[in-house]
Amino acid sequence: MKPMAVIGAGGYVGSRLVERSELLGGLPLVPIVRTWRSQGRLARYGVQAVRGDAGDAASLVPALRGCGMAVNLTMGDDSRILSDVRSIHAACREAGVPLLVHVSSAEVFGRAEDPALTEASVPDERHWMEYGRAKAAAEAWLKSRSSGPVTVVILRPGLIWGPGSGWLVRPAQALLEGTAFLFNEGRGICNLIHVDNLIEHLVQVARHEHPEPAAYNIADAETLTWADYYHAIAREIGVDASTVQMLPDSAFRESVASKLRQAVANQPFVKTIKRRMSADTKRRITRLRTVFSPPPRVSQVIVPRPVVSKQMWWVQGTFRKLPSAAFVRRYPGTEMRPFNESMDDAGRWLRFAGFQLNEGP
Question: Taken in order 23, 332, 117, 249, is the CA torsion positive or negative?
Answer without folding.
Answer: negative
